[in-house]
Amino acid sequence: MQAKKTYLRDVLRQMPVPPMRAGFADHVLATATARPLRDSPRQSNVFARWETWFGALVGALSAIVIIVFVVRPDLRPVAVPDVTLAFNETRTIDVLIDSSRTLDDATVSIVASGAVELADLEDAHQVQFQTRLERGRNMLSLPVVARTSGQARLVATVEHEGRSRRIAVNVTVKPPPRDKAV
Fold this sequence. Notes:
Blueprint: H1 2-14, H2 24-34, H3 50-71, E1 82-86, E2 90-99, E3 103-114, E4 116-118, E5 126-133, E6 136-146, E7 150-160, E8 163-174
Parallel strand pairs: 1-8
Antiparallel strand pairs: 2-6, 3-5, 3-7, 4-6, 7-8
């Protein structure tokens, strides 16, 4: 292989070279020194060119269109339902859990914070249990009692196979009515 390269190189060196035409060297040198290299389109700052910014704008608009119309992220805020209870009122709050498939051995955690606690469980603010959730709508009934006036939050978390979903309900407990002195 090396011998073939050497042979070709020697043959090319022996070939006659045509002479330069008159004035060719002067023309090449004059053209090369006529303008500085920094004015050359290839050497100019690429960020100062309008084509660069136009291309960036087209790319950004394309990305926005793809995200908004193709990917369609759910940008709507999640509405948290509000419930109002009277002081010392016990009520069952229903929470709808919509499941796309049947979940065997799903872990459900209920946390009551603030002015409410879970009814029938003395001073209980948290409970956790295993259950089966059917495909479709599952109603979870949470009995709560309002112990003090103010704001509270009831949070139900469903966990299954490393995935979780959280449903929250805001609760407002009205203060007890004041008796008017006669």
